[in-house]
Amino acid sequence: MPTSAHNLLIGTAISLICLNMLAVAMIILGAGNLSNCPVAAGIEVYLLGSGVTVVLSTLVGVTIQRRINKKYPLSIDRRWPNTTLNLVSLLINLAWSIPGGYWVFSSMIPDFTDPTSPLFCHKDSFFLSMWTCIITWGIALFLIYFWVKLDRAIVRNDIKSASQEDDSRYCDDSSGCQT
Fold it and tell me: What integer pLDDT is reported at residue 15 of this predicted model?
């Protein structure tokens, strides 16, 4: 019977597969339309760079995660390397979405019908890059909030566990302490 750890692993794998499928689509669309957006040539560069960034951070993240898991098997010591790795990956993707957001939102809304127009941009490239920016910023805000809350809860739990262990050292059966 699968445990919650197995379910978490399967859910993570499915999420990474879906995320990287989107990243590959961004690479293909960005590389295929590099000259199809005269209104903001950076949109395709953003798609290409964002896709490559996601794929590379996933590959590096999985590789480093495997090494961390081997070094700290079943240990709470894995928490800090995991958090650091995820935060660095998030910051790289978030930093790349800043110029992408500038390129996308400074050209609101281009002409999608006339390829000879200087205001033309390929519709799929524009909307994929726009939604990628919005979703990246939304996920970044959610994850930062979630990590802060989770880390505070873990720290509180660690402090509580440590204080209970410290109190139990000073209790004996005659003092009436409850352990």
Answer: 81
Give bridge partners of residue 117 from the DSSP assignment. none
- Local structure of 120: helix, strand or coil: strand
Instruction: Return the H-helix or E-strand segment holding 164.
Output: helix 123-170
- Encoded tokens for 134: 């919005």
Coil vs helix vs strand at 64: helix
| DSSP 3-state of 127 | helix
Query: How far apart are alpha carbons 45 and 129 in whole angstroms?
Result: 10
- In angstroms and rounded to an integer, the radius of gyration of the C-alpha atoms of the chain is 23
pLDDT at 129 over 50: yes
Cα diameter, the chain: 91
Residues 6+ apart with CB under 8 A from 86: 61, 143, 147
Residue 116 CA to residue 152 CA, distance in Å, equals 55
β-partners of residue 120 are 111
Give Cβ neighbours of residue 140 (< 8 Å, ≥ 6 apart). Answer: 90, 93, 94
> Rounded distance, CA 93 to CA 164, Å?
41
Q: What is the pLDDT of residue 28?
A: 92
Q: What is the pTM of this model?
A: 0.68
Helix axes 79-105, 42-71, angle to 10 degrees: 180
**Beta-carbon-side half-sphere exposure of residue 114 (alpha carbons within 13 Å):** 7
| Position 168 confidence tier, pLDDT thresholds 50, 70, 90 | low
